[in-house]
Amino acid sequence: MGRGGLRIALVAHDHKKADLLEWCRAHRDFLATCELVATGTTGQMVGEALGLEVERLRSGPLGGDLEIGAQIAEGRIDLLLFFWDPLEPQPHDPDVKALLRVAVVWHVPTACELATADLVITSPLLSERRHRVLDEESARRRDDRPISR
Q1: 83: part of which helix (H) or strand (E)?
Q2: Is 14 an active-site residue?
Q3: Which of 14, 29, 65, 143 is the catalytic position?
Q4: Could you give the CA distance from residue 41 to residue 130 in angstroms, rounded to a whole number?
Q5: Whole-structure pTM value
Q6: CA 19, 8, 63, 143 torsion-angle sign
Q7: Could you say which DSSP state residue 8 is in?
Q8: Tens-place pLDDT, residues 27-78
Q9: Phi and psi at residue 146, in whole multiples of 5°?
Q10: What are the residues facing 9 on neighbouring strands?
Q11: What is the band of 149 on the pLDDT scale with cuts at 50, 70, 90?
């Protein structure tokens, strides 16, 4: 598989939605080859602006971040673009942290801003998925390793 055909999750906090939309416009041709899933408002914004089909979940504060996290744990997300706002307090901050944590646990490449998003989608490693942990037993073994000092 080439870089296309990936399932990409899109999430952006209010003050970062313009950044994500700018990035999506610049990479529309690439995104058109992918399956897109997004939290509510972000999905509507991207779908309408780019004319792409986007599976819309709930808004982040209403459980959308958790829905994407569940899809990551199920092995259904290949890339997470999560443009979160580190300078703005979020009422659903535990959900934000949970989403970032599950992406790391399951080795899903995650970009939180424009430059990293560019680097990730241009990497030849993106299509290899060689770092993914796709079963719970592997994840447990990873967590049970002794800490070396």
Answers
A1: strand 79-83
A2: no
A3: 65
A4: 32
A5: 0.84
A6: negative
A7: E
A8: 999 999 999 999 999 999 999 999 999 999 998 888 899 999 999 999 999 9
A9: -70, 145
A10: 37, 80
A11: very low
Point out which residues pair with 37 in neighbouring strands: 9, 55
Q: Which residues contact 127 (CB under 8 A, 6 or more apart)?
A: 1, 2, 3, 6
Lowest mean pLDDT among 43-57, 111-125, 127-141: 127-141
Residue type, 123: S
Q: CB count, 10 Å around CB of 110?
A: 19
* Secondary structure (3-state) at 105: helix
- One-letter amino acid at 31 equals L
Dihedral sign, Cα of residue 98, residue 81, residue 68, residue 13:
positive
Tokens at 24, concatenated: 């999506």
Q: Percent of the chain having pLDDT more than 70?
A: 83
Which residue in this structure is represented by tokens 């990730």?
120
